[in-house]
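Here we describe the complex-level prediction in full. Unlike the single-chain runs in Section 2.1, the two entities below were treated as one system.
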Amino acid sequence: MNLRALRHVLFAAALSLLALFFGFVQLRVRASASSQTDQESAEKSLRAFREVASVLTSPRCLNCHVPDDGPLQGDDHHPHPMNVKRGPDGKGSAALHCFACHQSENAKTLHGPPGAADWQLPPPKTPMAWKGLSTGELCRTLKDPAKNGNRSPQDLIVHMDTSLVRWAWNPGPGRALPPLPHDQFVSRLKEWIDTGAACPN
Amino acid sequence: METTRLSVNGKAIELEIDPTTPVLWVLRDQLGLTGTKFGCGLALCGACTVHVDGNAVRSCVMPVRAVAGKHVTTVEGLSRDRSHPVQRAWLQVQVPQCGYCQPGQMMSAAALLAVNTNPSDADIDEAMAGNLCRCGTYARVRRAIHLASEIARGQR
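The structure predicted for the assembly as a whole is:
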């Protein structure tokens, strides 16, 4: 090989090495950007869930999402009088069903029973008990079909729009509202789901 | 005012009435069925208990529009001749003292026995927890429900 040919070979090799180097750098940059996007998405998801959790842990939700056999009442979570029980389907027991007192709307009389269609507790098979859980535990419970009534993320959004859940924003006098308006709550729930439904540790 | 149709103790009824009127006042003031009592007016005491399609409900907070097209049974409608097992047991055990809460107690007892023919003490306590008695007849109520259960099952 003459000197000229050798110079050509060396030049081509140098170009190839350069191309390899820039390709590698580009891959690293892309991977880093993707990792950054994932992290941002997870952080956004966690922020959204914290807002969702602030509603789920409000008295209007927690009083029925209880681990025990009967519901609670009021902003101080006191036991429901009359020894009311969850019953076989979450709708109370024989002769003392929820609908015996709770109508499809709030009673007009002060201190009368609140009401909404399908007034009930979660059923005993999947009690969806949230009371006493950390934010992370609440998040994982909400996502777990075995614990959330076999609901998909889309089903959760539908549940949050039922008349019973919406009642929390029209609870009648003497009962605190959840900390977010309903539309904002549903919006944060959707955002949490769309960003990967991340859960705090 | 609206036209509301319902059945009370097996009889078809048609009323021109404010649809938000509590069923209790329809029964007592419009239909003269005064067996059902006003106690608290807030669904807290059980004195106003009647059956709607067989289920015990508190008539003091139930608007009449909620029972349109449904079957309402009051204590007067348990039987025509006091032959309902709950009525027979109540008489035999002599449950009442002042008696004011007893129509509600009997209607809750009848609703319980309709779905549980042989209730335990715990079943009775759970089902009857919403019916208050200021005379404290709870022990006799429980005894009468056991007796009514035996009567209904043909053991008495």
